[in-house]
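Appendix B. One record, verbatim.
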Amino acid sequence: MKHTPSEAAAAARPLLTAMARLDIPCYIGGSLASSAHGASRSTIDADLVADVRSDQAEALFHAIEPEYFADVESIRRAALQRDSFNLLHRKLMIKIDVFVLKHYKYERQVIDRIIRLPLDPARPDDLLPFCSVEDIILNKLMWYDTGGRVSERQWSDLVTVMRVQRGAMDHAYLEQWADYLDVAELLRQALDRAREQDGL
């Protein structure tokens, strides 16, 4: 069953609140971030990136357990291995995938550039933490590349974001990190496709 971005955000909200209370840096990525930056579509779950330490695993588990089906050992293991864990919202039955920050140079940069945006136009004051428009583009370029460059959904999302955010993107930042992440050629292809679709 697919869910709207607003429903997925509602499922993630208690987790975001708990992480803020525990001083765990985090942001929303994936399709929810694409939606916030202009590529709105139905989504199945929510993706978060968080800098969870292993000594925070138990506190995080107890903070979220009333709202989610969770496993403390999975959280602790993911924090130790800088991997991922998932949760299931008890009432909404929406899955949350949490990717633990790996402390690579680029990922630290993304955390430092978190922005707060509304996801639901009906709730403009409900600001949630998202990665920047440049970083969702770079992340989708990486996912598209590592997925064998066959995902039309990833490609369509990033081209749509580029079209919607054309006048707001920091091209110097995109080029710098695309080169660092070895997706510079894909970035050029996506920019060309966005321009073609806009008739430029």
